[in-house]
């Protein structure tokens, strides 16, 4: 039974280099087989490690490989001209797959081997950009989606294009809408392509997530089906293997209590917890293999320039949800997500118990009545790492970590672009890991490499996969319950 909880919030005010030294914590696990997999982590009650989460609403997670196909561009800002590379990045997806992306934050450098997560537009600078839909149009009408370069050149009346110049022209057009940048390609054909793309771009809707679960946390009494948790995916039919821990009695079912053997977009999942089951919690991870939709945003787990997807192979995607149950008392389900419009992180607490749930957040107490839910926005500074932990009696613990990156770097000063001199300014845009690089020209395009490699460590969540199917392990509370 949960009676009360306190919450502590830490929003980092470290130097800009500090977040990338912090490394990466607990990300979505990789998958070894196509289809949908469910897994639960067997962890002792009250474990803080078990309840830490980097915000991820679901989809692909990947590591940046660097700038691969590019040419040159010139950025005009504050009376200065700066050469920079412009083109396509590549990423390797956890569990398999490759992604091609363009930059949508021209002044923000990348980090070598940075970890990226598929992210809704509203949690990036695209959420407040009225031209975000035009960027998606550009992606769908240019390289690499259009790989017939002769046809593309004819349509744009640009003159002959190569992969490098087509990539550069596409990136330049994107920057004009993502950053309102005064930028042009150095190659004449690439510049004509950029002009044509900019002129013809039309707003399109944000693409749907490759895979997501809604909500990310549920709760209720033992003897009930806890849910529903709705599957949102662009994948086709996916498989669900029954829980391996059959002795626990907890199953993943449909609304009628029938164990799921397959699922598709729109399917609703439930934790079926038999009456008399000891108070406890469990989590599941759903996974599939699919192509991530063009136009999906990718945000860095640490501070690194935001990307937008230009192309995807068949790739592993995943999403996670959890459940709490108890016989009586307050039974909270706590989740969180970035809220760029409010400049913070929304912490949502739902209480499906039969007693009020009282907790403290950012120095203030809140009470969620039985059967109710509420959301509290915790302010976080732009570009800052945050660490929000909800703790309470009986081992209650839930932690959320991430970086709030809701604006392009040029917009953080209240409009226009950064006013750093060339010797002070990190090489912007697609320099393939240029963090910390300096120089009189700010041009690192030749190698796509970095003059300073930050320490970034990725720690993956391990999955137990049986027969290409799913493993679901029930976490039982000992003397104290753990939070979800």
How would you describe this structure to a colleague?
By secondary structure, the protein is mainly beta. It has 5 helices and 26 strands. The strands form 6 sheets. A 6-stranded mixed beta sheet has the order 2-25-24-1-21-22, with no helix packed on it. Helix 2 runs antiparallel to helix 4. The radius of gyration is 23 Å and the shape is elongated. It starts with a strand and ends in an 8-residue tail after the last strand. The relative contact order is 0.26. The N terminus and C terminus are likely disordered.
Low-confidence stretches: 2-50, 411-484
Give the helix/strand class. mainly beta
The side-by-side strand order for the widest beta sheet comes to: 2-25-24-1-21-22
How does the major sheet shape up?
A: 6 strands, mixed
The portion of residues assigned to helices is 10-25%
The tally of strands reads 26
Radius of gyration: 23 Å
Strand content: 35-45%
What is the end-to-end distance? 13 Å
Mean pLDDT: 77
- Output the number of helix runs: 5
* Quaternary structure classification: single chain
Choose one word for the global shape: elongated
Distinctive features:
484 residues, mainly beta, 6-stranded antiparallel beta barrel, 5 helices, elongated, disordered C terminus
């Amino acid at each position: 039974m949960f009676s009360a909880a306190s919450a502590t919030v830490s929003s980092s005010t470290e130097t800009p280099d500090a977040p990338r030294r912090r490394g990466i914590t607990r990300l979505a696990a990789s998958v070894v087989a196509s289809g949908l997999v469910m897994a639960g982590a067997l962890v002792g009650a009250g474990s803080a490690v078990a309840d830490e989460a980097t915000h991820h609403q679901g989809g692909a997670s990947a590591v940046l490989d660097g700038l691969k196909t590019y040419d040159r561009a010139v950025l005009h800002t504050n009376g200065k001209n700066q050469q920079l590379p412009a083109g396509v990045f590549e990423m390797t997806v956890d569990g398999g797959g490759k992604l091609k992306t363009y930059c949508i934050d021209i002044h923000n450098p990348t980090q070598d081997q940075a970890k990226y997560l598929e992210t809704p537009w509203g949690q990036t600078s695209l959420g407040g950009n009225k031209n975000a839909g035009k960027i998606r149009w550009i992606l769908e009408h240019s390289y690499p989606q259009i790989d017939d370069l002769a046809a593309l050149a004819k349509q744009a009346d640009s003159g002959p294009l190569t992969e490098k110049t087509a990539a550069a022209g596409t990136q330049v057009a994107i920057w004009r809408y993502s950053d309102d940048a005064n930028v042009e390609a150095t190659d004449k054909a690439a510049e004509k392509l950029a002009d044509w793309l900019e002129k013809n771009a039309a707003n399109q809707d944000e693409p749907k997530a490759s895979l997501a679960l809604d909500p990310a946390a549920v709760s209720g009494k033992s003897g009930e089906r806890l849910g529903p948790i709705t599957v949102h995916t662009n994948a086709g039919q996916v498989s669900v293997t029954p829980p391996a821990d059959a002795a626990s009695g907890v199953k993943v079912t449909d609304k009628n209590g029938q164990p799921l053997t397959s699922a598709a977009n729109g399917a609703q999942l439930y934790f079926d917890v038999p009456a008399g089951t000891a108070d406890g919690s469990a989590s599941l991870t759903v996974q599939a293999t699919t192509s991530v939709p063009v136009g999906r945003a990718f945000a860095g787990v640490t501070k690194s320039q935001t990307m937008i997807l230009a192309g995807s192979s068949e790739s592993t995607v995943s999403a996670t949800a959890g459940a709490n149950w108890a016989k009586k008392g307050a039974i909270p389900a706590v989740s969180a997500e970035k809220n760029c419009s409010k400049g913070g992180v929304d912490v949502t607490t739902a209480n499906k118990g039969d007693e009020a749930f009282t907790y403290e957040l950012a120095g203030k107490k809140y009470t969620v009545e039985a059967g109710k839910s509420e959301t509290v926005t915790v302010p976080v500074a732009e570009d800052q790492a945050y660490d929000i932990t909800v703790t309470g009696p009986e081992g209650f613990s839930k932690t959320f970590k991430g970086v709030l990156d809701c604006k392009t770097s040029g917009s953080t000063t209240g409009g226009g672009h950064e006013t750093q001199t060339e010797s002070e300014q990190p090489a912007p845009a697609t320099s393939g890991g240029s963090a910390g690089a300096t120089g009189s020209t700010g041009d690192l395009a030749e190698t796509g490499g970095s003059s300073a490699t930050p320490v970034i460590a990725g720690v993956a969540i391990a999955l137990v996969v049986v027969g290409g199917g799913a493993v679901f392990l029930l976490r039982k509370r000992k003397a104290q319950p753990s939070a979800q």
